[in-house]
Amino acid sequence: MSILSPLQIKEANAHLVALHRRVAELEQRLGTTEETVREQAESLIRKDEQFRTTIREITEGKDREIANLQERFLRSEETAQKLLGVIKEKDDVISQLTHRSQLLSKICQSRPLLDSLLLYMAEGERLGAFPGSDLSSESPVIFRVPQSNGVLISNDHFSLCENDSEDQELEKTLFGTTV
After folding, report:
1. What does the pLDDT look like over 121-144, one tens digit per residue?
2. From which residue to which does any coiled coil extend (predicted)?
């Protein structure tokens, strides 16, 4: 073994003291770093929990909004179906009224012709029967024709039947327009 000189021992001791100081300093820094890492980890855990809570609240809000929108959609669909039914009913009424309007228009267009025909028939009735014809056995038909002054003309001597034996039960009939 070799013997160390007191100077070498002193230098070795100074080196060991510096080494222990450095180790203590590094341990302190390590402790500080560990504390910082632990604080950061705790902070991350808290933030993660906050984010999870926020995400859960957003998800619940989204689910409520989706349920609300689905309910509104179903109500809108029901309303749309009801309105389509109403539209179909209205279209049917419009179709019926259109047909009636066209019929009434045709009646109105034909009215002057019918009025003229009835006036001619009434004029024929006023002329009377042919001499030598027997009208006593025929069933008379009454025509009432509106005149321009509102007076109705009637005649008991006009018959639509050529042969009275065909229709013995024919009662007096009233012809005219109601338009």
Report:
1. 998 888 876 666 655 545 444 444
2. 9-43
Q: pTM of this prediction? A: 0.41
CA dist 19 and 5 (Å) reads 21
Instruction: Write the DSSP assignment of the chain as a string of letters.
Output: --PPPHHHHHHHHHHHHHHHHHHHHHHHHHHHHHHHHHHHHHHHHHHHHHHHHHHHHHHHHHHHHHHHHHHHHHHHHHHHHHHHHHHHHHHHHHHHHHHHHHHHHHHHHHHHHHHHHHHHHHHHHHH-PPTT---TTSPPBEE-EE-TTS-EE--TTB-S-S-GGG-TTPPP-EE----
% the chain with pLDDT above 90:
59
| Nearest alpha carbon to residue 157 among 132, 122, 116 | 122
